Structures are given as structure tokens and as C-alpha cells.
Amino acid sequence: MTTATGVSQKSTLLKVPAEKWLATGRRKESTARVQLFKGTGKIQVNQRGLAEYFGRPTLQMIARQPIEALRLEGKVDVIANVQGGGLAGQAGAIRHAISRALVQFDETLKTFLRRGDYLTRDPRMKERKKYGRKGARRRFQFSKR
Predict the structure, then answer these.
(1) Fewest CB within 10 angstroms: 31, 46, 79, 95, which?
(2) Could you tell me if residue 134 is inside a domain?
(3) Backbone conformation region of residue 84, classed left if phi is above 0, alpha if psi is from -120 to 50, else beta
(4) What 3-state class would DSSP assign to 51?
């Protein structure tokens, strides 16, 4: 990141302590790998802040949902590496991964997360294109003559 004066400025990256919990989450074509540890409530996605990576507030809310549902804001830090898909799928993948990491962090949270439907992997995927068709189901335009 460069400032107006041309001096390069590094964003502050979180330091990973020895005690951490790892988990993987998936949604659509996206895969998120998450490291969860006790901290001050910062969430880092692909070495950028959550608000910087996900511009839309709804996507930020989706990624934060499991932490807010358990009232753990300000108690855990998250470092997430996410690949593939679009931003909505990536936010869902981070939500899934954080939920799985929280279960490893404290096994008693599993019932609350299960009840909130945070641990269920959303099975909906893009349907493949079929031969003889324009897309998965769309046909080519019919011409009578």
C-alpha cells in the first residue's frame, strides 16, 4: 500500500501464538483455511482487514456471525486464507471455518453452533453445462423455419 508521499506502508499483520485452532470451511467454489486464537477480536482475511477485504457490510456480517452469536467479540482473533469463488462464497466459507474452529476451541459450543446452522456445509453448487445446450438447463433459441 502506498501513501500520497509515495512511501510504502505495510498493514499490521497478526502474530500467531503457539496455542491455535485450525479449521477448513467451504461454500460454493470457495475454500477457507482459518487459524483461531485468543486475542483482541481482529479478523484478518488474506493479509488484509475484514472491512478492507469485504467491502459490503453484509459480507462482513456473514463472516462475523458465529463469533457474534456466541458473544466472543474481542476475545478471539482470526487469520483466514480464502481461495476460489466470489466474495459471497468466500464469506460463507470463512463463516463455516470459524464455526468449526470454535468447536475445537470449546466442545460445549457445538450445540449452539449446530442450532444456529453454522456447522452445516451448504451443498448448493453450480450445475454443470450439458452438451447440446447453452448452459446447464438453458436451450438454444428454437427456430421454426
Answers:
(1) 46
(2) no
(3) left
(4) helix
Within-domain flag for 104: yes
Task: Return d(Cα 105, Cα 47) in angstroms, integer.
Answer: 23
Pairing state between β 76-83 and 43-45: parallel
The sign of the torsion formed by the CA atoms of 91, 21, 109, 41 equals: negative
Please report whether residue 137 resides in a domain. Answer: no
Per-residue pLDDT of the chain (145 residues; tens, 9 = 90+): 555 555 545 557 777 777 889 999 999 999 999 999 998 989 999 999 999 999 999 999 999 999 999 999 889 999 999 999 999 999 999 999 999 999 998 899 999 999 999 999 999 999 999 999 999 999 999 999 8
- What is the spatial distance between Cα 109 and Cα 99, in angstroms, rounded to a whole number? 9
